[in-house]
Amino acid sequence: MRRITxxxxxxxxxxxxxxxxSSCNSKRKVxxxxxxxxxxxxxxxxxxxxxxxxxxxxxxxxxxxxxxxxGRIYNPQALPYSSKSYDLSLRIKSATQGAEIxxxxxxxxxxxxxxxxxxxxxxxxxxxxxxxxxxxxxxGQLQSYTYKVTFKRYREDPHSFSWSEASVSGLPxxxxxxxxVVPSGDGGTMYYVKPSGASAASTFASPTASWQDASLTxxxxxxxxxxxxxxxxxxxxxxxxxxxxxxxxxxxxxxxLSGDYSPSxxxxxxxxxxxxxxxxxxxxxxxxxxxxxxxxASSSVTHVGEAPDGAxxxxxxxxxxxxxxxxYQGNALYLAGGITASGKASPNLWSTTNGHDWLIVGGKxxxxxxxxxxxxxxxxxxxxxxxxxxxxxxxxxxxxxxxxHSWESARTTAFSGLTLTDFAGYPLQAFPSADGETxxxxxxxxxxxxxxxxxxxxxxxLKTIED
Length: 467
Prior knowledge:
The protein is mainly β. The protein has helices at 55-59, 122-125, and strands at residues 2-4, 42-48, 64-66, 71-74, 87-94, 100-105, 110-112, 120-121, 129-136, 142-149, 152-154, 161-166, 179-184, 187-193, 199-204, 211-214, 225-231, 234-239, 244-248, 251-255, 262-272, 275-283, 289-295, 300-304, 315-324, 331-339, 344-345, 349-352, 359-360, 369-370, 373-379, 384-390, 395-400, 408-409, 428-432, 438-443, 453-459, 464-466.
């Protein structure tokens, strides 16, 4: 499990103007700016399409409206990518009902906007347009106000990768039970389970330089890692012996749990009422599955929750991140990825504010797909999560641009340089470079004696343009 602390929720802010007046006896005057909503202004703008590949994604595109000397409308986040031309509709809301709106495309053609059922070709519209809004004032004089509308979009397919295999010595031959990478600058440490079932660790100064086996201290022979998480500057781990460990580097020590509790998976770290805690999945004193909240300072289980839903991830690598605020006081922990008890990759996002009560974000559980292994790589500079999965048939990739709430199947451009069937049934481990320009994909070993392989993926389509 990897810990993420740099994800922030995407939100639309409301600007509040606080106006104060002086006392009646005060000689000072408070000057207030006179904000007016003019008849020729646009108060709402969006795009829609009936194209099945673009409909859902385009509906999420948000636009900012600026009423300056010349109005501006633009989208802060790039529009979803399409290699084809498709029909687009403009959804426009004016301050005045019945205002005449004209659409002026980049080639100078002027078209009267007649409503949301009217369509334009995307390749004509997305090179930038002007919207001229005309209304009559009380004296019957025509007033016009013009907006320049620009569309931020990708130059190329943002799913594009260029993959190559790197020749690296000392790569860890990890099995499918569990693996994760804890980065440190350009290097890091990989914690994993060998095909033989033994826990192990390997360090690297650079992913494409030599990897070195590291001797674990404090993890008894025969105990397999089930999770490793970095939180508050320390490492925490659980093993197949249902024990909790605290560590640094490759040195671990057992953490006591007052009470008869058996942790099996660390879900993440969360501050609850100002107290640093670990959220765990395990068993309660009677041996039944339950969520557990563990106070780090007190070394004790502070709360015991209900049994997890069958769709909740019970093993495998996950991504967790902590957010403050929202419709509640305090912090919330979000969890993406993992494998369910039925061996299916979880495509759902879960959240908790107390560590022992977990809810599905969005209220609807999506059924996952049976996989051999799954790994997730979060790239902070892109605010994207890449979820790689190996199945009996080969390699699959899913991409989330909203912190794990929804996933998009990668297009074929994401696999340039890879033979997908070469990954069938193999354990996987993926992690990004420190600069966010590369993803490293490790293919482990199915059996003892087999060598691991490292594939280097360079992002190829992340540059945007705005006309």
